[in-house]
């Protein structure tokens, strides 16, 4: 009985310690200010460009900044003078007032849909902006599936169904033969 209060005290301390770790982790999260970065123009065509810039005090003075582009075929986007190979990210340096001077971003020639552009550093939250890529003729981009690329899947699925039916027929014939 004497150990019961000690057990409850130890359990309470352990529970408080476990529950306080996530709170401490979230305390250091940096959220980007709303509207601190812009992409001009906000609408582009495939193969077109936009100029991405961030306001003063978005970053610390003269700090390295990473810029990423996320969207369909974004790995083919060109950020500044760097053509990315595996990911659409590039590096820049903020100015003395903490702004990010305009960085030219060229979209791939097969771009479509919305592309999210983000700039961040190790000490600053940075900011984000989005660009919608439309067709050169002004029509809406295709955002669903392309039936031409689905042809192979339809043929493959049909062949699998035929193979399954053939295996079923073989099994039925074999059972009948074994039962005679």
SSE arrangement:
Elements: H1 3-27, E1 37-40, E2 43-44, E3 49-54, E4 64-70, E5 78-79, E6 82-83, E7 89-93, E8 100-106, E9 113-120, E10 127-133, H2 147-179
Parallel strand pairs: 2-10
Antiparallel strand pairs: 1-3, 3-8, 4-7, 4-9, 5-6, 5-8, 9-10
In short:
Helix content is 32%, strand content 28%. It is an alpha+beta fold.
**Strand ordering within the main sheet:** 1-3-8-5-6
Count the DSSP helices.
2
Percent helix among the residues?
A: 25-40%
Report the mean per-residue pLDDT as an integer: 77
- Per DSSP E runs of 2 or more residues, the count of β-strands stands at 10
- What would you call the shape? flat
| Biggest sheet features | 5 strands, antiparallel
- Radius of gyration from the alpha-carbon trace, in angstroms: 28 Å
Distance between the termini: 77 Å
Strand content: 25-35%
Low-confidence parts? 82-86
Assembly context of the chains: single chain
The topology string of helices and strands comes to HEEEEEEEEEEH
Structural class category: alpha+beta
Explain this structure.
With 180 residues, the protein is an alpha+beta fold. The chain is 32% helix and 28% strand. It has two helices and ten strands; from the N terminus they run αββββββββββα. The strands form two sheets. A five-stranded antiparallel beta sheet has the order 1-3-8-5-6, with no helix packed on it. A five-stranded mixed beta sheet has the order 2-10-9-4-7, with no helix packed on it. Strand 9 and strand 10 form a beta hairpin. It is flat, with a radius of gyration of 28 Å. It starts with a helix and ends with a helix. About 3% of the residues have low confidence.
């Amino acid at each position: 009985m004497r150990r019961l209060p000690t057990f409850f005290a130890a359990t309470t301390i352990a529970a408080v310690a476990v529950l306080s770790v996530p709170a401490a982790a979230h305390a250091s999260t940096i959220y980007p200010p709303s509207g601190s970065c812009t992409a001009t123009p906000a609408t582009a065509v495939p193969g077109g460009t936009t100029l991405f810039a961030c306001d003063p005090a978005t970053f610390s003075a003269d700090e390295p900044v990473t810029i990423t582009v996320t969207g369909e075929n974004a790995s083919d986007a060109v950020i500044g003078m760097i053509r990315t190979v595996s990911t659409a990210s590039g590096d820049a340096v903020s100015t003395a007032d903490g702004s990010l001077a305009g960085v030219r971003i060229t979209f791939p020639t097969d771009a479509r849909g919305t592309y999210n552009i983000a700039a961040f550093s190790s000490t600053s939250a940075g900011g984000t902006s989005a660009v919608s890529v439309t067709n050169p003729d002004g029509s809406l981009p295709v955002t669903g599936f392309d039936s031409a690329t689905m042809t192979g899947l339809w043929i493959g699925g049909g062949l699998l169904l035929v193979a399954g039916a053939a295996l079923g027929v073989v099994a039925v014939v074999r059972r009948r033969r074994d039962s005679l």
